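Trying the structure run again after the queue cleared.
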Amino acid sequence: MGKRAAYLPSSVRSVGAMLSDGYLVTWHCSRGHAGPVDLEEVAKRRGADFSLVDKQASCRRPNCDGRVYFRYAAGPGTPSRRLEALREREVAAQSAAQTIDLVLHQLVQLHDLLARLYRKPTLKD
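Done. Tokens:
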């Protein structure tokens, strides 16, 4: 199953789209290093359809064991956002659905136990 870039504008889902819309992209290391990303070079090497969403890599600075992630901004001096698919709502919804399924299954089991105890028909899963 491929990654979905949930809650991200379509214009940042590929390097080509970011280039054509004039986005600025920067890389940031977990150890504090940062720098600009040459989107034209990325497009040459990986293709215009390549996506930086949810991508991480090892930092290329000597003697650094940090992890690199990417941020995008609409232009100079504008706030940047991390290039990651925001799946918190999906995870929360999935967790809630699993909890509901578990509780429903337990209720059916309780009903069937009581039905057997009182000799009444049981529910089927």
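The chain is about 35% helix and 15% strand. Worth checking whether this holds up in the mutant runs.
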